[in-house]
Amino acid sequence: MIKQISLITMLALMVGSLSAQDLKGIFNKAKAKISGEDSGEVGMGLKEALEVGVNDAVDFLSKEDGYYKSVYKILLPEEVLQVTGKLKAVPGFQNVEDDLIEKMNRAAEDAAKKATPIFVSAIKQMTFKDAMNLLMGEKDAATRYLEKTTYTQLYDAFKPVIIESLDKVNAREYWHSAVTAYNKIPFVKKTNPELDDYVANKALVGLFGEIEKKEANIRENPAARTSDLLKKVFGKQDK
């Protein structure tokens, strides 16, 4: 019974803004009304609510400028800046920094499209115990859960897309040319940083950053009940 009540409260947190008094009222209503057969439906509602938040985050970042013109914009690593700073004086590379930054962010936007099915799979495997831990955890508990359970799989899915996307806009070829030109400059330390891994990890940092933002918003602000299932589950709390 306590597990069922906790799940009801967790579901409420995921779709609306609730004060301590609101939570107490919901807890009391749940205690008075919930029956054994409700637990499966409540679990489905919770997972659907999580999917809504994840889909919103992925949709945002996978659109054009989702990374490039957002707070998640991927910038050049320090060692690359050492290269580009000197290359600006080399003909053909005056805009090397801006060109590389745009190409890296376009690659991240392409890769983000791969995230949704991986997140959905992780959400479907969530147990009632997982849900209770999310309820009792910090305000970013759901984000950290998804990060723990999906990061490696997401990286493996992102990396080839990053490579393909960088190649699509000639970024890796461009970088190879830039490094070759840089290494011809007298007395510089030769360098050849691997941008593929860097971009993939930075893309994931941005992805989980946006999911964390969505989670905080879902927990703290009112949200619409966007499906019959959510309306039905929350309707039990309204009576």
Task: Give the arrangement of secondary structure elements.
Layout: H1 2-15, H2 20-33, H3 38-62, H4 78-87, H5 96-112, H6 115-124, H7 128-136, H8 141-168, H9 171-183, H10 195-220, H11 228-238
What structural keywords apply?
239 residues; mainly alpha; 11 helices; 0% strand; elongated
Polypeptide structure, described:
There is one protein chain. 74% of the residues lie in helices and 0% in strands. It has 239 residues and is mostly helical. The two termini are 19 Å apart. Residues 5-9, 11-20, 22-37 and 233-239 have low confidence and may be disordered.
Span of the ends, CA to CA: 19 Å
Number of helices: 11
How much of the sequence lies in strands comes to under 5%
Number of strands: 0
Overall shape: elongated
Helix content: over 70%
Largest sheet, in brief, is: none
Which regions contain 5 or more consecutive residues with pLDDT less than 50? 5-9, 11-20, 22-37, 233-239
Report the order of strands and helices.
Answer: HHHHHHHHHHH
Structural class: mainly alpha
Write down the domain tally: 1
Q: Gyration radius, to the nearest Å? A: 23 Å
What's the average pLDDT? Answer: 75
Explain briefly what this protein structure is.
With 239 residues, the chain is mainly alpha-helical. The chain is 74% helix and 0% strand.
